[in-house]
Amino acid sequence: MSREGHLKTCLRIFGYLKHHAKGAILFDTTVPDMIGERLETQYNWSQLYPDAEEKLPLDAPSPHGRAVKTWIMWDADHALETRRSVSGVLVFLNNTPIKWHSKRQHTVETSTYGSEMTSLKAAVEMAIELRYKLRMLGVRIDGPTEMLGDNRSVVMIVSKPESMLKKKSNLCLYHYCRETNACSIVTYRSITSKQNFADCLTKALAPNVLYDPTKPWLFRNDLG
Questions:
Q1: Greatest mean pLDDT among 123-137, 174-188, 199-213
Q2: Residue 177 exposed, middle or buried by CB count within 10 Å (0-12, 13-18, 19+)
Q3: Contact (Cβ atoms closer than 8 angstroms) between residue 71 and residue 127
Q4: What structural domains and CATH numbers belong to the chain?
Q5: CA–CA gap between residue 72 and residue 124 (Å, rounded)
């Protein structure tokens, strides 16, 4: 039951492929210089989450080789036509984007904060999944996964133990994301909206606006 809007979307996809036939993702093994501001210091989370620890697979092989850095950018676009927000998550292994997630959220969030928390939870789950896969492949992981987001209030509330959340509807997401921080699975950084490349996964951007965040990953000239 396709409609005219589906045809326009299809034509846009083929137009993009026609004009960007040389686009490619290069495997870049260099360790990134992390951007953004880390709002937390060395906090003691033991009183809030005394049993928090990362669950390591018992049957994982011994890690070998150089450690890799995992980091994720996440974003959300609040209340679109159906009033359901869109989550965007971009996963990196060193300087290589290896996975991306762009999906309409299952619930209607009444605030930007709620949609950002829902997107962050999806990003944290992808971080846990990636760390498990790497360990089962015998890959050494360099510290916690860095989580980069442009909503400073969300980053602050999941980074500092003294932060409080009064909205019960978001309380489970709040504690889930903070507990992963307490057991050093992830750590959080605040970045600006222009630095957040996951923004291109949450909305249909104009071609000139889309090109800037995608150029470093899809249109590099390293191969000559």
A1: 123-137
A2: buried
A3: no
A4: 48-218 (3.30.420.10)
A5: 9
Mean pLDDT of the chain: 88
If we measure between CA atoms, which residue out of 50, 49, 33 comes closest to residue 95? 33
- Is residue 40 over pLDDT 70? no
Total-model pTM: 0.87
Q: What SS3 class is residue 212?
A: helix
Q: What angle do CA 152, 197, 29 make, to 5 degrees?
A: 115
In terms of Cα–Cα distance, which of 193, 220, 218, 222 is closest to 17? 218
The type of residue at 169 is S
Does the pLDDT of residue 23 top 90, yes or no? Answer: no
Residues ≥6 apart with Cβ < 8 Å to 211 = 219
Specify the pairing of strand 64-68 against strand 139-141: parallel
Do residues 113 and 151 touch, judged by C-beta distance below 8 A? Answer: yes
* Identity of the residue numbered 29: T
